[in-house]
Every structure is written in C-alpha cells, then in structure tokens.
Please model this.
Amino acid sequence: MSFFNEAYRGTPPWDIGRPQGEFLRLAEGGSVKGDVIDLGCGTGENAIMFASKGHKVLGVDSSPLAIRKAKVKAKERNSPADFMVADALDLASIGRRFDAAIDCGLFHVFSDRQRGSFAKSLRGVLNPGGAYFMLCFSDREPSDWGGPRRVTKEEILSTFSREWRVDWIRQARFESQYHDEGGHAWLSSITRLR
Model:
C-alpha cells in the first residue's frame, strides 16, 4: 500500500478536508452506535466527527503518513479520536472489539480475493450484531476519468453472504476533489451475525 502513503505526501483526491456527507447524515440520524472503528481512515475527518458525537473511535490506516496527519488534526481540534497504523486484512492485531465500523473508500481498493479476507478480518473485530457502514464507488460511476475500481451491488452481496446480513444498499454520493456533486457510490449497512 505504498501508493497510498505516497499519496499523502500531498492531498489525495479523496481527502476533502471534512467528513463525507453520507457519514455525517448517518451520525446525525443516530444510525451508528457504540464504539467505532474507522477503516482506512486517511487523515481522520470521519473519525474526528464521530468522536465529536460522543463515540469512542479508533481510526486505522495502512499509511503511516495519513495516521501522522490524523493525529495532528485530532490534537489541534482537541478530539479524543485515536489513530493507529494497521492492516485492514489483519485487524486482529488491534486486540479490540467494536460495535460499529465505518469504511469510506477502502472496500473498493481490494481485489476479489482480498475481499473475502477483509470480511473475515472485519468480523474478528466487530461485536455480534455490530454494524458495518461502507461507502464505495459504484458501477454507475463512469470509468473515463480513471480512479478506483467500481463495485456492483452483487459484489457487496456476494462478499457478505455468510455470517453477515446486508440490511440495505442504497445509491449515494462519494465526495472527492474530482466531483463537485460527488461520484456515484453505494452506501451499505451490513450486520455481523452471531
């Protein structure tokens, strides 16, 4: 994942300097409960926002530079959000469990093979009944500008078909520096069973 660490030497297109609107609406609506892990947290905007709503939050990212920037932001804003470098395919190394997980643009970077490993890794840190909220680029987003891999509803359903319940998948917008109104995305709510 050195590509991502290098991207944080500047400001990558997904780092918009504020929480994603989709996650802000989830937070304000009370959908996210308890202790939260922010997977692929980048520079921490979503984690800091959830912490401001009273959640105990840990943001994790494979990029040491992103985590360094997130810690600086949290300190400057007096946020209790915590951050650490971690591999999303080996979340057991964190040694903690959470009631909810948020994912803003991580799932769509995984290969087909990695998706199954990610679901297993996530299951290991999410309490039974815990919710996973995932925002990823959808297959409705044109591919002429490049960007991340597009994801179909069927791929989400297939990845989370065992030991999970997909509660809903809805059309959403993924804000970036490339999209004034946000790129086409899927926002999903997925519950860990047992």
